[in-house]
Amino acid sequence: MNLTLPEIQEEVKKLDNDSKALKKDIYKLSWFMRGALSVEEAFAMDVADRLILSEIIKENMEVTKESGLPFF
Amino acid sequence: MQTQTFTKPNPLASYMRQPKIYISLPSNGNYWAPNSIIVPENGQFPVYSMTAKDELLFKTPDALMNGQAVVDVIQSCMPNIKNAWACPSIDMDTILIAIRMATYGEKMPLKHNIPVINEEVDYEMDLTVLLNKQQQNKWIEQIAIDQNFIIFVRPLTYKHMAKTNIKSFETTRILNMVQDDSVPEEKKLEIFNESFSNLTRITVDLVADSIFKIVIGEEEVTDPKFISEFISNSDKDIFKKIQNHLSELKDINEIKPLEFTTTEEQQAAGAPAVYTMPLSFNNSDFFAQGF
How confident is the model at residue B289 (pLDDT cuts 50, 70, 90)? Predict the structure, then answer.
């Protein structure tokens, strides 16, 4: 509450960027799950579960790369 | 205080989030408005981690400013709380710390700079210690003006706090305008007087809202209109006594600044032997940790 106007504007910008980054993470998670996880379900997950899914996606990507199968 | 028993378990329960921790509240469910909280039989409230949707609320400036973000997140992470606007101030820190612990774990990294030498320090705070301390919060209701005149106070609710914060913010913003050289002196004086009167009203309202009962001999006064009128016209000493009591309780219950000691090397460079750092409860900082 003691912030100056430029500080408030900076804080608002930071929050906006954080918000966009979080949304991007969620959409990416849903995309890489290939239809197994809806955006709505991803938004209802907590940070720990999202981290587990990210690790699973990473592992699967490594396996796919090593197998030489087409990857997109 | 209300309890509710669910006889049939929800068939969708296994698909829901699981509680991460259980906490007791300093108020034990007292001071909450009727139907605003369901107190479990054992007094232990389940706390769930924040979802991505909850995290987004803490990144929405307007919702943070007007308090709606805090209310929505509390109701999402602590389903026993039905109306977080009614949350008494003594429970607020406990609830927010518990939600942070349930979401990001017990350790909280705190970066700061040592005064004078400006050296950056990485410190990891154990939130369980802080939670235990905040759970010891207490409230003393009675203020005895004399033997036959006793005033009973309660903690302010989150709704009061949010409303007051917005009013103070608006007043400060107006006062800052007074510093503008383009504003004529007469107008400045008018703005200053109005702001000063607003700040006085905020202080008086806060004290009046804190009082829920006044006992004079055998008679009890609980009508907020009478209480507000009494406070607006009360003797300066009585007002001061109530204000001091509330201020002491605030000091007892609020989170204390963290104390750090420096090394001999740092002291040789000009750093103080001991320094303190206020623990910021700014929502965006306290909860900012993406994945």
Answer: very low
Q: What residue segments make up the domains of chain B, in order of their start?
A: 13-137+279-286, 142-253
- Span B41-66, pLDDT tens digits: 999 999 999 999 999 999 998 888 88
ipTM of this complex prediction, to 2 decimal places: 0.88
Contact B284 A1 (CB under 8 A): no
Residues of A in contact with B60 (CB under 8 A): 15, 19
pLDDT at B76: 95
Neighbours of B128 (CB within 10 A): 13
Interface of A with B in 18-57 (CB under 8 A): 18-19, 21-23, 25-26, 42-48, 50-51, 54
Task: Output the pLDDT for position B186.
Answer: 83
